[in-house]
Design brief:
Largest sheet: 6 strands, mixed
Order of helices and strands: EEHHEEHEHEH
Strand order of the largest sheet: 1-6-5-2-4-3
Structural class: alpha/beta
Shape: globular
Helix content: 40-55%
Number of helices: 5
Distance between the termini: 15 Å
Radius of gyration: 15 Å
Number of strands: 6
Length: about 170
């Protein structure tokens, strides 16, 4: 079985152990996939995000935290905070790779061996989609090489542009 797969669709519909939310630092919901996940998950997940925010002030860029999934069909949501693109001068590539790595590490720590990622930072955060796709795939491949117990990583793209980019890069 190929450990990295690609799908086009809605991440909130996946019944797998973990999905990743392209979160903001406040863990407060927002637009795009973040808003869709918060809306679909409901109050339970939102309250957990509130507790994390109260305890540690949110989630720093390049980091990730885990919550229960609330009303979603998955078991857990990993909230990964990608960087806002500012021309590549503020370590955006390293921070994006870190968000993917930390998400995978949290999944592994919690025995969530199938995980789905949206396209982190490529919406309102403005990260160039081709570069973001390259970083995401390279980071995931490196992590899987070091952690062969992982069963599957799904890149799930909502839009045609990202889907086509990932399709080309994954062969």
């Amino acid at each position: 079985m190929k450990k990295i797969t690609l799908q086009k669709g809605d991440i909130t519909k996946l019944a797998i152990p973990a999905i990743v939310n392209a979160a903001n630092r406040r863990l407060a919901g927002g637009g795009g996939v973040d808003g869709a996940i918060h809306l679909a998950a409901g109050r339970e997940m939102i309250l957990e995000c509130d507790k994390i925010r109260d305890a540690q002030g949110g989630c720093p860029t390049g980091s990730a935290v885990l919550t229960k999934a609330g009303n979603l069909p998955c078991q857990a949501v990993i909230h990964a905070v990608g960087p806002i693109w500012s021309g590549g001068k503020n370590k955006e590539a390293q921070l994006l790779a870190s968000a993917y790595r930390q998400s995978l590490a949290l999944a592994l720590e919690n025995n969530l061996l199938r995980i789905a990622f949206p396209n982190i930072s490529t919406g309102v955060y403005g990260f160039p989609k081709p570069l973001a796709a390259e970083i995401a795939i390279k980071t995931v491949e490196e992590f899987l090489d070091q952690n062969p117990t992982f069963e599957e990583v799904i890149f799930i793209c909502f839009d045609d542009e990202n889907y086509t980019l990932y399709q080309k890069l994954l062969g």
